[in-house]
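Input/output pair, single chain:
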Amino acid sequence: MQPHSESWSVVVHGGARTIPDPERAGCVEACLKAVRAAAAILSAGGSALDAVEAATRMLEDAPNFNAGLSSVRNAAGDIEMDAAIMDGETLALGGVGALRDVRHPVSVARGLLPERPVLLVGDGAAKFAASIGAEPAPLIPLVTPAVAGGDTVGCVARDTHGHVAAAGSTGGIAGKMVGRVGDTPLPGCGLYADDELGAVAVSGDGESIARTLLATHALWSARDSTPTTAAQAAIERMKRVGGEAGAILIDRLGRIGIAHNSRNFSVGVASSQLERPHAATRADDLKEWLE
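Output:
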């Protein structure tokens, strides 16, 4: 590990799901673009919080994933999005649920960090988004067959100051009940960040993730194991309730871990120790850079 003042790392994901062969190259490229955006911030000495927001915004704009511009529709034919962001230095958390008509839900979530509430939903989230001048979504959403089933995007990072952060964003499940909020904005379920432990973001079957507190268990496991082993142990908990999931994790030292029980998991990694960013649609394809 490099000296504290020089070391940084970042991981992004585009969701744990089965990705048809023709769509994999696009998912890899989208993850590379997002992780490069975060890496540019971190390598210049920027904050983990800025890095995870920037990467997640890029993933929200990508047509390959179920978030932001490409979010799926609910049972009423409307788009309702969830997002969250957490600062590991202060434990500040911002989350939004069932948010409509916004291009970048993760930035609305970040706007909540200085505020008292940690989660706003529905009309309350929409009013808050308007109050901070959040960019509206285009009139015609870009839903594509590639993301018609659902899932999540996310990012975790550790900066050169030793601070960590996590972010996530999703359109939820296609055809979901109106007002349904998944695991993504729930602390300890869809994500968590704490400088004393690390940062984690997960993806998959939201209700199962919430029932098992997947993010919490991943970080607690990372206290006395490698990041990949910790992520794998958390995924194993899913057997109690069933369902697919994937987890990206950076521990307090900046070591990277990825695990999933889904067929595919779009991921991208970069760090001060790697010559260049790498991305793949399976964790096994990146295992030489994981710990």
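The longest strand covers residues 164-173. The chain has seven helices and twelve strands.
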